[in-house]
Amino acid sequence: LQDTEHVPVWCMRQAGRYLPEFRKTREGRDFFDTCRSPEACCELTLQPLRRFPFDAAIIFSDILVIPQALGMNVQMVAGKGPTFPEPLKEPEDLQQLQAKVDVSKELDYVFKAITLTRHKIEGKVPLIGFSGAPWTLMSYMIEGGGSNTHSKAKRWLYRHPEASHMLLKMLTDVIVQYLLGQVAAGAQALQVFESHAGILGPVEFKEFSLPYLRDIARRVKDKLKEAGEDIPMIVFAKDAHYALEDLSQSHYEVVGLDWTIDPQSARERTGGKVSLQGNMDPCALYAPKERISQIVKKMLEGFGKKGYIANLGHGLYPDMDPENVGAFVDAVHQHSKQMGAQI
Ligand SMILES: Cc1c2[nH]c(c1CCC(=O)O)Cc1[nH]c(c(CCC(=O)O)c1C)Cc1[nH]c(c(CCC(=O)O)c1C)Cc1[nH]c(c(CCC(=O)O)c1C)C2
Question: 7 lies in a domain?
């Protein structure tokens, strides 16, 4: 990553319901219909940039567009979140999935949204594309929605390991095509969300998540390299602190961190092999602005200025005060400028 005067900062879910203008644009429209409108996605992506001096944009979309592309029905139910009326129950249900997905056709609307947004940003900040990681998507496809225990999906790992690998492989192939399509459409960095890593232990993570995360980065990078291209890739495996060493050697330039790891030990454990991103507890945004500023200062001192992207340890919540988000961004810029040059 390049040296910058201040530490770059963006927030997961920076386009979201905490912004009144987001709620207004989304009003009365189905969530996935919104995702299928390039104009709406572009508008929602740009909204947080009009308010705050973020250093990156992330395309408005959702990780669950991939299960949809595989032929599954996914609804966003108000007050409940994503819901699959017919989740996968047993390995034979895999036969109902689309074996050969034409990503350029099925997910064309995301690519259009990226191209439109990239033009509208006019080079002011880079545009990040993203995908859910295989295990996280698999867990939604089996659970049929959010879950505390993920026990239905984990049951597959223990009872049907072969079918699990088949599904994970199928998802990986689609994700690789999807991410390459996003780069071709104009994405300038890619983040892979393994949001449900924390529900796995180190052994299961090594078998059912890590190999696929690695495969995705390696295949995307190899393909880009053939065309003389290269873009930074970020892996965010939430609550996978047990895997930090492995994640720092997985072909990703950046490892995103949740707030359960302290910055200094994350630096030590990743040994300068990668840049780090994160990791303020989103709930710290409920604190008064002065307190946010202190927390940010400490976080910056822990990570150091070099090879660091400031962010939260997970997404913003809908009841957060936009003013405090602004205070977070300003604190990152201000404190990091004052820190001066650092090794
Ligand atoms: C704003 C939003 C999104 N998705 C959902 C919402 C809220 C609903 C609404 O607006 O109506 C439903 C929406 N979509 C999902 C959920 C989580 C449900 C659950 O509890 O399991 C909800 C409420 C599933 C989802 N979707 C996503 C993840 C991975 C990140 C994470 O760990 O939070 C996950 C797990 C990715 C995602 N989703 C979204 C983005 C946009 C870009 C940005 O960050 O600004 C991104 C990157 C957009």
Answer: no
